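User: what does the whole thing look like in 3D?
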Amino acid sequence: MNPITRRTFLKGSLASGVLAVAAGAGLVKPTSVLAASWPQSAFEAKGIDDALKALYGSASAAESSAITIKAPIQAENGAVVPIAVSTSLPGVESIAVLVKENAQPLVAAATLNGAAGYFSARMKMGKTSDVKVVVKAQGKLHTATQQIKVTVGGCGG
Amino acid sequence: MAREMKLRTRTQEGQVEILVLVNHPMETGLRKDKASGKPIPAHYIRELQVELNGKLLADVKIGISMSENPLLGFRSTVAKNGDKLKVSWKDNLGESGTAEAVVDVS
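Assistant: Here's the predicted 3D structure for the full assembly of 263 residues, as structure tokens:
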């Protein structure tokens, strides 16, 4: 008898094919969790508008009262300024925080996937500046701004 | 890896808040060493992902304006006690870290 009939050959190749697919999926899995790559041009942009264009493809965002910024009006230590953003907008996809006067304004951009419309962080501020928050919800950009005063020298003046 | 991470969950305004702390210098690359006058090379976290039960919940891209030892907060309306949390980060020099925890808001 011929040890390799057509049927056994097919069975064998099918099985190894499945194995290859499984191995491929296993290899792809860890990187697929890492989603999109780091948007270098958005972070290296020197102005808010350029950063937003690089990040979202547009710098025009509508002022929204549905975005709440919780941050100090005056920060004594510009190296650590807490900020919390919450929004009641439905379908929040992404929240970005930008400090206008910083050398590189974009602090962080959080892509949210099933999380509530909330993001908090601590940012560095070189000096008193407007802090702009942009929320992308249902494909549209919304924004809110708050000025945070930074006390230089930390003497509370 | 070597950098310490802290993961905490608590209830805030009826939602589960996830707090992530990573010990990291977050060097901007713009500062100069005062003694030698040489610039200190940039070293900062670029991305951080939060997974809830193996599903990506938040994917944060981070720049040099983030503070030293970043503390990030997220909220979920669906997370409950016992859910698995996993946080991983990567910096511009290829360093990375991972921490896991279980949601506990009891």
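In plain terms: Residues 22 and 117 of chain A are 36 Å apart (CA to CA). Chain A touches chain B through 38 residues (CB under 8 Å).
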